[in-house]
Amino acid sequence: MANQPVLPTLDNLKSSFTPDVNVQAVAGQWFLAFTEAMQSKSITAVINLLVDDVFWRDMLALTWDFHTFQSTPSVKKFLADQLPLFTLSAFKLREDLVELQRPYPDIAWIQAFFDFETTVGIASGVFRLVPLADGSWKAHTVFTNLENLKGFPEQNGPRRDHQPNHGKWAAKRAREIECVDEEPSVVVIGGGQSGLDVAARLKMLGMKTLVVEKNERIGDNWRKRYAALCLHDPVWFDHMPYIPFPTSWPVYTPALKLADWLESYAHSMELDVWTSATVVSVIPGTKGKKWTVTVQRADGKERIFEVNHVVFALGGGMGQIPDIPGQDDFKGQILHSSKHKLATDHAGKKVVVVGACTSAHDICADYVENGIDVTMVQRSPIYVMSTKEGMPRFMAIFWEGGPPTDVADRANASYPNLLLKLMHQRVTKDIAEADRELLDGLRKRGFKTTLGDDDSGFLFTALNRGGGYYLDVGASQMIIDGKIKLKSDGPISRFTQTGLLFEDGSTLDADVVVFATGYADARHSYRALLPESLRDKLYPIWGLDKEGELNSVWREVGGRSKDAELNGIWCMMGDLALCRFHSKHVALQIKSYEEGIFGTRYQ
User: In Å, how far are 57, 178, 277, 301 from 298, measured between CA atoms?
Assistant: First the structure.
């Protein structure tokens, strides 16, 4: 049984240290012992290098899965089970990436990156050493991550195409896109950032991949959403694989600008994409492949592909409208935020927006800026932080002057989520103090706020629920100033002919009711395409498991068994940063299956 995790503060460690510690010497000495222990498969020797409440997070390198092991008994079992299965070699400390870090005055650790190889893979790692009372340093976190497969390097850099192409490129691309000469090995359903990222990764591994996008153009999944939509993550967090945003790119990307970027990305990466195309069904294959995928084009013609791998890259599911009685009685318009386009569509009307998270705030602010009467109906408390105060604190490594993206990605992933939660409790408190005036103003207007799950801010609300927060870029002040009206004093009872009736007897007139109430279970999209006999085989998608890892994301959706009936059905979803990093993991898993080198998922 894992210990209850705590931060490795100097008090908890009963330790102290001198700031002039020779970090290279400490890291080097520890890493030498770690290397010898891992290569000799001496589990006792490895455990002696770790603190009792250590975290070890592995992404595919040693488990062919995503796992976090917490405390030495858990790590000891994992090592005993897995080390005999691998030949480990080529351990190398990245001396340029060794540093002493002081996230808070009472926390000190030496963070270091390293490389190593497994039987079939090239891997990386990160460790953090903390000082102990006896003057020694031991690892509080270890992260191991599969980077590449031996013998199957990405086809870029020195391995790019060196042959000149005189006037044949356009015709060649047309044939590739139509899959004239080669059938795809992988079908990706959805051409948003998640689908394009994984298609680009697979292409670099030499795998023919077809992206099927229902919209007329790549980027329409952003282009056709509400006009006021803008990313609330900073540009350094949002780069895509292989082609980063230009250095002139704005910090917060407008949705229309991102839509055009996605379209240009697909073209520049030469991804094979069918737009105005719909996957009709995904059923078990009958011709030597796992899956038969039927795709319908805009002209109604169908084409059938036999593949071993289908990647669902469809985001968080369909828009969800609560089942509130009386909807048929209402004389006005009801729509979900995913169907909302322009505030000016409702000029001169009285609008009610049900919901209080990001989309609700963006839409309400757009109505206000277009002179339209709007009231936000808040049903439950949410977490609010300003991007001004919050983003530089939460995303310090994804900010101007931060480390290269590949380094930041690995440093970020090296924090197990359950440990990150403890860190975020402190950061959330700091942000709330900096945002005190804003939060006090909201509460005075009756807006209900929370500090997130266990006071850990927005990250764990997002990881567990996919929502429940607003990263303020101006709408909060509109609520404080009364420009966005607010009703937060009770649940909705039913619709009336002219608006909404609440359980306390109060009413709210409306011509338009917009539900910014999130999205349905992500499994809905899978169930719509899979045969009925397989629909109950889907495991939960999103939300954290007991180890603090996301359920089913970036792997197969039917569980960890080699004989699972949904093997070859993959989930690719997340924000731009998660998709950038984990698209590589999905591609490596698929490639290793196709090359016959995939191991067994550790259970």
Answer: 45, 14, 6, 7
Dig out the tokens for 170 from the structure: 């356009």
Give the burial string for 221-247 (b: 16+ CB within 10 Å, else e).
bbbbbbbbbebbbbbbbbbbbbeebee
Mean pLDDT calculated for residue range 166-171: 94
Query: Residue 438: helix, strand or coil by DSSP?
Result: helix
Tokens of 558: 């039917």
- The answer to whether 493 touches 487, Cβ cutoff 8 Å, is no
Q: Tell me the pLDDT tens digit for each residue of 399-421.
A: 999 999 999 999 999 999 999 99
Q: Are 149 and 120 in contact (CB under 8 A)?
A: yes
Q: Cα 423 to chain center, whole Å?
A: 19
Strand 121-131 to strand 107-117: parallel, antiparallel, or no bridges (unpaired)?
A: antiparallel
CA angle 70, 74, 75 (to 5 degrees): 85
E-assigned strand segments in 175-325: 186-189, 209-212, 272-274, 278-284, 291-296, 302-307, 309-312
pLDDT, position 318? 80
Say if CB 245 and CB 203 are below 8 A apart.
no
Tokens of 301: 């013609």
With a threshold of 0.90, does the pTM exceed it?
yes
Q: Reduced to 3 states, what is the DSSP secondary structure of residue 76? A: helix
- How far from 53 is each of 8, 15, 72, 146, 536, CA to CA, in Å? 9, 15, 6, 24, 37
Band (pLDDT 50/70/90 cuts) for residue 459 is confident
Helix (H, G, I), strand (E, B) or coil at 204: helix
Beta strands in 357-448 (DSSP E): 373-377, 382-386
Q: Give the number of other Cβ atoms within 10 Å of residue 306's Cβ.
A: 16
Asked if 586 contacts 311 with a C-beta cutoff of 8 angstroms, the reply is yes
Q: How far is CA 449 from CA 375, 421, 440, in A?
A: 18, 19, 10
| HEC-encoded secondary structure of 23-69 | HHHHHHHHHHHHHHHHHHCCHHHHHCCEEEEEEEEEECCCCCCEEEE
Please provide the DSSP assignment of 530-583 as one string: S-GGGGGGPPP-SSB-TTSPBSSTTSBTT-S-TT-TTTTEEE----HHHHHHHH
Write the burial class of residue 492 (CB in 10 Å: 0-12 exposed, 13-18 middle, 19+ buried).
Answer: buried
Rounded Cα–Cα distance for residues 68 and 155 (Å): 31
- Which one, of 316, 318, 315, 362, lies nearest residue 339 by Cα? 318
Residue pair 395/237 in contact by the 8 Å Cβ criterion: yes
CA distance 289 to 267: 29
464 burial via Cβ count (<10 Å: 0-12, 13-18, 19+)? middle
> What pLDDT does 32 receive?
98
Question: Residue 110: phi, psi to the nearest 5?
Answer: -100, 115
Pairing of strands 309-312, 186-189: parallel
Measure Cα distances from 483 to 224, 226, 310, 340, 368 in Å: 26, 20, 47, 20, 7
